[in-house]
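Supplementary Methods S3. Complex input for the MRU-bound model.
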Amino acid sequence: MRTIDWGESAGDAGASGRGAVVIVDQTVLPHEVRLLTLTDVDDLVDAIRRLAVRGAPALGAAGALGVLLAVRQGRAEGWSHDEVAKAIDRVRHARPTAVNLAWGVDRVAARLADGDAAIEAEARAVLDEDVAANRAMGDRGADVLDGLCAAPRHGGGLRLHTHCNAGALACVEYGTALGVVRAVHARGRLDRVYADETRPLLQGARLTAWELDQMGADYRVVVDGAGPSLIARGMVDAVVVGSDRIAANGDVANKIGTYPLALAAARAGVPFVVAAPESTVDAATPDGAAIEIEDRGDHEVVAWQGRQVAPAGARAVNPAFDVTPADLVTAIVTEARVVRPAAGERPA
Ligand code: MRU
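Predicted complex, serialized as structure tokens:
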């Protein structure tokens, strides 16, 4: 099953018959696998904001399909060109940090003048290419780890540490960082995965653990604060994470809590590997300081599932992402190449 798809081909075109964006609702996993059929652009924007669809490549797909949905909804409801453009803009700006969202929107919006068939073909191509890119990056990433970790610390296989969810759920299928894990596992080279729980929304405990479970991989969920210490204690052969935006100099934005892992990995001489598609490399952003970091609401930190866990009135700071400086990044693996920022190479 794809994490995100266009509904017509799935026979799930929505009540209006105008087509729909169909997503796996990531807010209810792992307890329930629920599909949401979105026939309204503003429902898609809402789904992006509340992380029902999330993860940089999946957001790229949401952006691409969002343009198609805006065109279809606009036609069904008699919107002007201006109204369609505004709807597309709402999708483009639903979340700021993952460059893939704007990339997906812009790629399909560039075909607006070419007619419906071209728009739909471009949107579908974004999804198909994501699947192919992830498989290529998974194999290349497994090769890179083979080279970097020739003598795993625990004999039989690799012990990998990951953060947040960079799996099939963060993409259309397969996954980026978890795609690398998948490829290592398929080669019989995986010993264990440490999955950070990833506060405050627990993408690691809820989503990565669920995917690892389905994969049949040995894994342990750890609290975010334990990661650097596990690395320092020699329990980890390599850290493998995804990214939401890679600046031209190789600085890497990813889920908050990634940077401490990179610091600990550098200190311990453990490789820190980033797996991401080329669409995550943002040549227009010179360095990490230029990346807009999404600030999310206090409620995600001071409450859990609607129940207050901090004192009433407690305030929070809730940055959703951090930036790992290029000099801490051993390798960036894409579908096309390997870049070694710590050795002075630049992705753009
Ligand atoms: O806030 P989220 O869940 O969208 O954050 C996702 C991440 O930080 C992922 O690690 C990143 O998008 C890479 S996904 C392949």
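The pocket of MRU is lined by residues 51, 54-57, 98, 164, 166, 170-171, 176, 203, 242-244, 254-255, 320 (CB under 6 Å). The radius of gyration is 20 Å.
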